Amino acid sequence: MSDAVGFTSMAGARAEGDAPEIGIGMLGYAFMGKAHSNAFKKIPYLMYPPVAIPRLVAIAGRDEEAVAEAAKRYGYEGYYTDWRQMLENDDIDVFDNGGPNNVHAEPCIAAAGAGKHVFCEKPLARTAEEAKSMLDAVEKAGVKHMVAFNYRFVPAIVQARQIIESGALGRIFHFRASYLQEWIIDPEFPKVWRLDKSVAGSGALGDLGVHVIDLARFLVGEPTRTMAMMKTFIKERPLEDGSGRGMVDVDDAFTALLEFENGAMGTVEASRFCQGHKNYEVLEINGENGSIRFNLERLNELDVYWAGEEPRETRGFHNALISESYHPYWENWWPHGHMIGWEHSFVHEFNHLFDAIVNNKAIEPYGASFEDGYRNAVICDAISESAATGRSVDIKY
């Protein structure tokens, strides 16, 4: 007790048996570095009682000034300019790879070999072959492994899956999804790494399309065949260093047909050339008993239609606000109607990973493992092959 009347100090209140610490070592400090660090900080007091306490041990990046600033900003204990040195730190339990696509494979494979659990941003790899090497490495090491398909952890998406799993929607006939943005329409926008095949692997397909492909698998099942088109609208752009112009060798947009093993038909598309669309990911699923619609820009809502609902005069889509205490994850948040946002999908995602580590649970089926990342890459390769050949391509794992 302190001298203040009625005051009880909680200093040192953590007792033996409380949630264990999990040391985090993160590669990358930009967009995803911010999103991931934000989630780590929120988990201990929002996903309460926490299954684990993230300890921000170190962050790595090539630019020392930038990575030092990131370490200070996000609260990491230290930083490295070489991820290889970071992996030698025994305080790191989880390697979080938020770097560009060309630095997914080697660091993740090395981390698994060092006995670290591995979390990797999407897409898992630039090609299916590269993804398979990563899957083989984590399986050989026996570590937990997860790909950052964070939209699986949006409460409305989880609710949609639970509706489908219950059988209420009946047989699924259609899945259709679009992911549309506008940020590179200007022909003078520079050739950033996302427009370089050697770094990114692909364009809109690997950046945006992987999300809708993952949700297709998550909600409907495995696709077996695809027919696709891809397009590059602006084939030359200024180089970032001002030294001239460079060729764009990735897709600006793609559209693909999918056939699923359960007999459903699907369409998926993604583009970064859609004026007015900032981060417009929408999907619709049509079943024999009803339909479900979702829009990421209104992520706390789910539109549901039930066939045969009475009275028929008012039959139509219902807009359900997914914010009740009985909806997925909402016991950790606010009173109903007090909305959560995009950032909170990462809180749910990392909490799922930590639960799998601490309690030795499987990442799947609700989380995306490296197996899911590999299968996603196989589908992307099939889409690219179909677009290049003009033929339908069977999807084989």
Tally of separate domains: 2
The level-1 CATH class of the largest domain: Alpha Beta
Instruction: Walk across the major sheet and give the strand order.
Output: 16-15-14-13-7-12-11-8-17
* Range of strand content: 15-25%
CATH superfamily of the largest domain: Dihydrodipicolinate Reductase, domain 2
General description of the model:
- This protein is an alpha/beta fold and 397 residues long.
- The chain has 2 domains: 21-150, Rossmann fold; 152-394, 2-Layer Sandwich (Dihydrodipicolinate Reductase, domain 2).
- It has 10 helices and 17 strands.
- The chain has helices spanning 31-46, 64-74, 83-86, 105-113, 128-141, 155-165, 197-200, 204-219, 344-358, 370-389; strands at 21-27, 53-60, 78-80, 94-97, 117-120, 145-147, 172-180, 223-231, 236-238, 245-247, 253-260, 265-271, 280-287, 290-295, 301-306, 318-321, 393-394.
- The chain has a 9-stranded mixed beta sheet with strand order 16-15-14-13-7-12-11-8-17.
- Helix 8 (204-219) packs across helix 10.
- The longest helix has 20 residues, at 370-389.
- It is globular.
- It starts with 20 loop residues before the first strand and ends with a strand.
- The relative contact order is 0.15.
- The mean pLDDT is 96.
